[in-house]
Structure formats: structure tokens, C-alpha cells
Fold these 2 entries.
Entry 1:
Amino acid sequence: MNLKVNEIFYSIQGESVHAGLPCVFVRLTGCNLRCSYCDTEYAFDEGTAMTVPQILEKIQYFDCSLVEITGGEPLVQQGTSVLVEDLLQARYRVLMETNGSLDIDRVNRRCSRIMDIKCPSSGEHAKNDLDNLKRLTANDQVKFVIGDHDDFLFARQMASLLPEFLCPDRVLFSAVSGRLSPERLARWILDGRIKARLQVQLHKVIWPDRDRGV
Ligand code: SF4
């Protein structure tokens, strides 16, 4: 089984409840959405075909038990579920970032799915697969990328529909870089008594001038 891989790199986990931990990232090629703020457009088409064993060998080199599969959108590739399965078998802790528009149960539930619910300013919120709300487990995480106050109101409404076992630890509110300051988002979260975790993109704080490999 081949997958098209954009990059594999070792960095600090910048998002999710695992922020701050060293992690191996497997960035897969291809995405079915076109968000207005996308910062990984280079992953839409660029990539190299690799087999699952080749990917595993490359991951092994970094001697790190935490692996995140990201994109693009990992679920557009058939082989992603096989990769997740093999990583779990090899006893890695596996995270997968997904844009929330496709069925998250295509991968094993032992993988922590970090699922976006797209807000209006992304231009793609009509594509949210709301059936995914029923598929979430206590192992998953839900992320809202918020660009303005309308997005915040939307996120607040959607967050109120999430299962209680995720709140507040595994509900992530993140500001769109360059559009909304984390300070303003923090104020809205506190004033609104929102049961969510403010997420700052740690890799952008550490490496503000790098947009690949971090
Ligand atoms: S889902 Fe992610 S990779 Fe795809 S367009 Fe949106 S931000 Fe970019």
C-alpha cells in the first residue's frame, strides 16, 4: 500500500493537548478543502510515493514514541488507516489531525483524532460532517480555528453540542495567526465562561520564520 507523503520531520508538537512534546510528523499530500487561512498549501500536490514499511522505517530513526499524521487532509488517502494500524501495532502513540469533513472512523479509535470544526471565516464550514460528533471518543480532541468574533460565536455554539467527556480539556480554541490575537481570544473565552482550552501555535512562537518542517 503506497501513500503520497509530503514530508516526515521531527519537531515540537505545537498544537493539541500534547503541545510541547517532541513528536514525529508525517505530512500526507492532498486536501479536499481550501480554507482561506491555509498555511500548508504546499501539501496540496507535492509529495513522494512511499510504502507503509518505508514510512515506518523513517519514523523509527527519530526514536520517539509520539507520531502525528497530518496534511493536507490524511483521510483523503486510502492507505492512512493502514498506516495508523501499523503504528498502533508497533506501540506508537498516534495522533491524526483531520479537517472534520470526512468520517473520522476510517481510522482506529485508539488513534487520537484531532478534529477541526471549521468556522465561517474558513469559507469551508458548510463541509463539516456533523455526524462526526457522534463518533468522538474521550481519546479525541476538537479544534476550532477562530478568525473573528463571528467565528467565536459559531465555535461557542458548536462547543455546547460536544460530549461532556471532552470539555474543557480536549476542546481547543485557536486564533488564526495574523487575523486575531491570542489575547483577544483569551478575553472572549474568559468573559464567555467557555469550557475550552486556549491554544497558541507553539511551533510558530519557537520558529516564527519557518513554515516547513516545524
Ligand atoms: S483543511 Fe487544512 S490543509 Fe486543507 S485547506 Fe484547510 S487548513 Fe489547509
Entry 2:
Amino acid sequence: MTLTQEKTLAAQVRPDFPILHQQVNGKPLVYLDNAATSQKPLVVLDALRDYYERDNANVHRGVHTLSSRATDAYEGARDKIAKFVNAASRQEIVFTRNASEAINLVAYAWGSTLKQGDEIILSVMEHHSNLIPWQMVAQRTGAVLKFVEPNANEEFNLEQYKALISNKTRLVSILHVSNTLGYINPVAEITAIAHHYGARVLVDACQSVPHMPVDVQAMDCDWLVASGHKMCGPTGVGFLYGKLDLLRSMPPFLGGGEMIADVFLDHATYADLPHKFEAGTPAIGEAIALGAAVDYLSSLGMDKIHAYEEQLTAYLFQQLQQIPELRIYGPRPTLEGKGRAALAAFTAGEVHPHDLSTILDEAGVAIRAGHHCTQPLHRYLKVQSTARASLYFYNTQAEIDVFIAALREAVDFFASIFG
Ligand SMILES: Cc1ncc(COP(=O)(O)O)c(C=O)c1O
């Protein structure tokens, strides 16, 4: 099998990523830990550097030239993100430190409206970032958490969800793509059902926004969160999308400079959206560089990125299935690589995933081992940890071959020890 889009995508973009062109432990780096964080193209590194070299000043505070340049670029990045996820208004995009902070913002500001007996539906698949904030809300308010388990195919169990939801449900907070099972949740359907019961919906899109077209209006979710560092942007910046009226109705999360209109000694009025939720000096350079990342992804085309990743997924699974000792978690993709994200979490019998990862590192291959911040899901799957290879559009078929050969060797090595 040859990947038809490879020439036009991975080959085209690899020169843009300097970090990929290095040796690790004497071998060419094969970076397959993209679900944890992605690498950054030159245009993003340049945007960060240009900002600090030319435009560094605080935003919204000065009338001098540097300050207005910084403000224009920072607000310009917001416009780009709004367009990227098809928000109806730029005011619906709030910069945060990461997705975790965006969820905490909603949990704090909107979660305080919950009361004893209100119900929140989550899934067992959730990343800790979309679990702990709601545990904290439940402890604070007396709201009750309910969980949708994976079905026999290790997909979101829609039937169980329909059975759990009721007029008591105030919130459904759900990931779009599982960072462990690779499953792509039917979020538009989940949202439509939630809205039928008058519940709000938060979508954790950390693993979808970097990899496929995401349209918040088509999805009709109430909030959506993502992290910049997983989508070719820098660390330290992420965003919250929220429907305008809903964001307007929410009190501020953090207090300080930038988020105010008028301040008196004993009270204050707050700035309009989105600044009401951006207290203090934001990560200006990082937000601008995230705007550059969005430009970069858009110039490649999210449809193209997704289609290429489907081809990589098909090839990855074809190859992994050649190693019978592996247990791969989550649903199988179709032969065309459809139906799941470009990542695979797996175990190899009794071999500890950390040992696998260490041996692969010696071959220059970076994969992740651990619970991937989904401990409850791992507990549900009756496994302590898994190894995970996760791809992005700059990965190639040849890199998958290197990974598979190193994995095969590692599995054989442990089989020779354990017998
Ligand atoms: C599905 C999912 N949600 C949330 C997060 C949290 O992202 P961050 O640590 O950038 O806030 C991650 C990161 O791994 C993730 O994969």
C-alpha cells in the first residue's frame, strides 16, 4: 500500500518542522507522541520570535505604536480562531492557558449555577481535565455525576447515554475524540439529544480540532475547548468557544486587570466579552503564534489533513495487526482508515508499556506509555497502562515501518526473556 497523499502532504510539510530532522540515540527521530503535543512549524516559531523582536508590548493598555501592533496581532489571532471553528462571533472565543483552564473556567463560572440533585453526564473515556473540574463542581454544589461507559466495541455507548439523560441533566461534557480509544464521538447527535432535555453541552475538542474540520455551529455545542500546543501552536495558550448569550450570562472566572470596565474600591463592573474572562496579561506572543498555526493548518486544508491521516491510520492498523501479541484498544478503522483517529493505544501481553517505550526510544521512536490522563478508562479496561502511538500529518508510512520493526523486535526480545 502506498499513501497517495504522502507526496502532497507529509513530504511537502516536513521541511517546515526543523525538530523532525534530528537523530535521537543515533537514529533518525520518529515522533509518534502527537496526542500529547504536536511539533511546531517554522511559521509558528517565526511568529513567536517576530513578536518578541519587533512588537513586544502589553495589549489593550497603551496607545503607543508597539502596543497597538501587539493588540492588533493578538486580536487578529482571535479572529483566525473564530473563523477556524466557525464561531458566529469573535466575542465567542476566549484565550485561556490550555484546554484544562477553559474547562475549569466553565466549571467555575457556570458550574456555580448547579444545585443539589442536578445531573452532569460525562463518559468513562474522559481525560482527567474533563473529569476533575466536574468532580469539584459536584462536591461544591451537590450535583451528581453520571457516566456513559464504552460499549462492547469500545465506542461511546449511545444507548446507555439515552437511558441516562433526563430532565435532571443540566450538562453533558464529553470529548470529541478519545486520546486513548481513538473513537470519534457523534457529538452533534449527543448535543441534539442533550438540548432536547434542556441540558448544556461542552465538547472537549483537544484531539479533534488539530486533525479534522470542526464547526461549532454545525455541532451546536454550547462550549468547546482546545489546546494550542496540540495543533502546531505553542504551549501556554488554548481557547474556549462559548455561545455568546451563555458567555454573557456567566460571571467572571478570575479577577484582575483587563477584565474590568470600571473599578471602585468596593466594587467593579466588568468588560464586555471576551475580555471579561481574560484577567491579567495574557500569553500575547503565544496567542499570536497560535494564530500563525491556524493560518498554517488552514493553508494545508483540514479536509486534506484528515484524509491523509485516515490513510496513515489504515496503514498503522494494517501493520499493528501483524503483531499477534498486541491488544489494541478502541474500535478498528475501516480499510480506508475511517471511523477512528490516527492513534493506537496497545499492550503486549505482560510487557510493561514503559519498557516498550524505553526500547523504542533507543530506536529513535517516541511513543507514550502510561495512563494518558485517562486512569478511570484504564481501570475500566482492566489495565494499568498502555503504550500509545499517535500520528500527525507530518508522519510518513516509512516512519510507521520503523516503529513497527522496532516494536516487533521489542516484543520478540521480551518473549525470549519471559518464554
Ligand atoms: C482529550 C483531551 N482533553 C484534554 C486534554 C488536556 O489538555 P491540556 O493539558 O493542554 O489542558 C488533553 C491533553 O492530553 C486531551 O487529550
